[in-house]
Design a protein that fits this description.
- This protein has 613 residues and is α+β, with helices and mostly antiparallel strands.
- The protein has four domains: 11-221, 2-Layer Sandwich (Heat Shock Protein 90), CATH 3.30.565.10; 225-360, Ribosomal Protein S5, domain 2; 392-472, Rossmann fold (3-Layer(aba) Sandwich); 484-613, Heat shock protein 90, C-terminal domain (Four Helix Bundle (Hemerythrin (Met), subunit A), Up-down Bundle), CATH 1.20.120.
- It is 37% helix and 19% strand.
- The strands form four sheets. It has a nine-stranded mixed beta sheet, covered by helices on one side. It has a six-stranded mixed beta sheet with strand order 16-15-18-17-20-19, sandwiched between helices.
- The longest helix is centred in the middle third of the chain and has 24 residues, at 334-357.
- Bound molecules: adenosine-5'-diphosphate (ADP) and magnesium ion (MG).
- Adenosine-5'-diphosphate binds at residues 31, 35-36, 38-39, 77, 79-80, 82, 90-91, 97-100, 121-127, 172.
């Protein structure tokens, strides 16, 4: 029996290891299963490269068993095994990877079988993660082709003991004596069958050898993305979506995407059909599941998805990632940036083709996630317009459905200079805006902005296909220039100047001015705005904690062909007090139509009553 201290360096490293390298204790199982898989790979490679050895595929497997009474979790493999030297070399020296050496040796000597072995280990620390959950670790191993077996036992930093022992077959058994529950850590869970199964599923589902508990194989072994693309059915995609808990719905679209070359990766991406309930909350975590060599290394890799595509679910597998010692990603990895760029472009392409060929599904998609695309346009000062401007849609006054900006612009007549839009709370309410009448008359299409972010996003965009956007509530619609009555209107406006000044004054600074409207037909009044800030933006901003107090410059437009205008005119001459009340009522009505609230409802009610009497 040999009692050994870990090398000094190793001792410090082991301590570091147990306490700080890994964020999640549960990954110990992933590390041990990966090691077992590596060991079987090496055995398999040995058999492949030597003649006269016959083998049965069933000989290669990993067995997990639990003994609750003894508090042990055991992982057994039919791999290459270790003799005493191997144990001292690989388990006695932390940060020494036998697997890395093997990998280098294989690729140096034999480039043909190189593809057959994709060894997972490379840092030589994974094994020690066992000490995060165990008081004592025992390794019993017999190397292939050798008669003697050895037992390696360690209780952590103090060192280890190796002695000869018996083992019926070649291979390795690792026995973990699981720690007692501590204040904040539940170790008992690692002795629960369901927990261990779920950990195998989570991290090691695609290990290529069977991982068994009892007689049952619990891993899927072949990842969906390693299958031939042409053989994957829609059902396979949907099952995988459910298995991975990407959503309870049926995905709208499943995408298989793989890139080969200097950097290569394979991915399966999904566009979900429904908004997750927490999608627009802080709790929602976007990201794709990231695999390196079929082993899961990150469940929600954010860097793979821009925020505006945060709804996309899926997995990415790449062999070319730079991982750090705890198998976590190096930040700002160039390969990762490359993958993320490719994926972004792919998603855009797929969404565009869905928009074109499968409009019904696209509308479903857009209703679920359109907002996040519009937020994407708005954020980062329009940096993402190339990706997003063709993906967004708005309800159209003429088509009565969602349309794209491209479709709108293609339909614009020659005389139409702007892309017109109307803002409001919902499509119904916008549809009733008095200003819309004249657009209907001229047969101009108007886009309805019923989402708070819409107008902000469009301001950032400023124009689409060189056509500027214009709100139908803006003061200078420029429709009027083409209006025949324009001269007449101006004359009338001059004539009534005194009256309009009176109205403006009566409203005590609430409006910038009053004028004769050129857009109203049957309705008596409406509001328009001048300057940068629209009335809709005022509404949105006033709801924000620090946005109160900002006001749009409002213009009260009065329909001079309306009967009420006659009354106003007459009262202006005969009864100034009544004229004042009419002005206030008209202003308040215009506010209500715009969806703003009346500032003094009591005064308004009294005004209306007194006018009715
Ligand atoms: P890595 O896997 O990165 O090489 P580990 O700390 O996980 O590092 O393992 C260290 C070494 O111990 C491995 O490279 C391998 O040589 C050896 N080893 C670990 N587990 C086994 C096993 N089940 N069978 C055979 N060898 C093993
Ligand atoms: Mg390892």
């Amino acid at each position: 029996m040999k009692t050994r201290q870990f090398q000094a360096e190793s001792k410090r490293l082991l301590d570091l290891m147990i306490n700080s390298i890994y964020t999640h204790k549960e990954i110990f199982l992933r590390e041990l299963i990966s090691n077992a898989s590596d060991a079987i790979d090496k055995n398999y490679y040995r058999i492949l490269t030597s003649e006269n050895i016959t083998f049965d595929k069933n000989d290669f497997y990993i067995q997990i068993s639990i003994d609750k009474d003894a508090r042990t979790l055991t992982i057994e493999d039919t791999g290459i095994g270790m003799n005493m030297e191997d144990m001292e070399e690989n388990l006695g020296t932390i940060a020494k990877s036998g697997s890395l050496a093997f990998k280098q040796q294989v690729s140096d000597t034999d480039s043909e079988s190189k593809d057959e072995v994709d060894i997972i280990g490379q840092f030589g620390v994974g094994f020690y993660s066992a000490f995060m959950v165990s008081d004592k670790v025992t390794v019993i191993s017999r190397k292939v082709g050798e008669e003697k077996a050895f037992r390696w036992v360690s209780e952590g930093a103090d060192g280890y003991v190796v002695e000869e022992c018996e083992r019926e077959k070649e291979g390795t058994t690792i026995i973990l004596e699981i720690k007692e529950n501590a204040d904040e850590t539940d170790y008992d869970q690692y002795l629960e069958d369901y927990k261990v199964r779920s950990l195998v599923k989570k991290y090691s589902d695609f290990i290529k050898y069977p991982v068994k508990m009892g007689d049952e194989v619990i891993n899927s072994m072949v990842p969906l993305w390693k299958k031939n693309k042409s053989e994957i059915t829609e059902e396979d995609y949907e099952n995988f979506y459910k298995e991975k808990h990407f959503g309870f719905d049926k995905p709208l679209k499943s995408i298989y995407y793989s890139v080969d070359g200097v950097s290569s990766f394979t991915s399966i991406l999904y566009i979900p059909g429904r908004t997750p309930f927490d999608f627009y909350s802080k709790d929602f975590e976007r990201g794709l599941e990231l695999y390196s060599n079929n082993v899961m290394i990150m469940q929600k890799c954010q860097d793979l998805l821009p925020e505006y595509f945060g709804f996309v679910q899926g997995v990415v597998d790449s062999q070319d990632l730079s991982l750090n010692i705890s198998r976590e990603l190096l930040q700002h990895d160039r390969q990762l940036q490359f993958i993320s760029k490719k994926i972004k472009e792919k998603i855009k392409k797929e969404l565009l083709s869905m928009q074109k060929d499968d409009r019904e599904n696209y509308v479903t998609f857009f209703e679920a996630f359109g907002r996040t695309l519009k937020f994407g346009l708005y954020s980062e000062y329009g940096m993402n317009r190339d990706i997003l401007e063709d993906l967004i849609m708005f309800y159209s006054s003429t088509k009565k459905e969602l349309v794209t900006l491209k479709e709108y612009v293609e339909r614009m007549g020659e005389d139409q200079k702007y892309i017109y839009y109307a803002t409001g709370e919902n499509v119904d309410k916008i549809g009733k805006l008095p200003q819309l009448e004249i657009f209907a008359d001229k047969n101009y299409e108007v886009l309805f902005f019923n989402d708070e972010v819409d107008e902000f996003a469009i301001r950032v965009l400023a124009s689409y296909s060189e056509k500027e956007f214009k709100s139908i509530s803006s003061g200078d619609l420029e429709l009027e220039k083409e209006n025949d009555e324009s001269e007449e209107n101006k004359k009338e406006s001059d004539q009534n100047k005194e009256l309009f000044d009176f109205v403006t004054e009566s409203l005590g600074g609430k409006i910038k001015s009053a004028k004769a409207s050129k857009k109203l037909k049957t309705h008596p009044v409406c509001l328009s705005s001048e300057g940068e800030l629209s009335i809709e933006m005022e509404k949105v901003l006033s709801m924000m904690p620090d946005g109160g107090g900002v006001k749009a410059e409002k213009i009260l437009e009065i329909n001079t062909s309306h009967k009420i205008f006659e009354l106003l005119k007459e009262s202006f001459v005969n009864d100034k007090d009544k004229a004042k009340k009419i002005a206030r009522v008209l202003y308040n009505q215009a506010l209500l139509i715009e969806g703003l609230s009346v500032e003094d409802p009591v005064e308004y009610a009294n005004d209306v009553c007194s006018l009715m009497m």
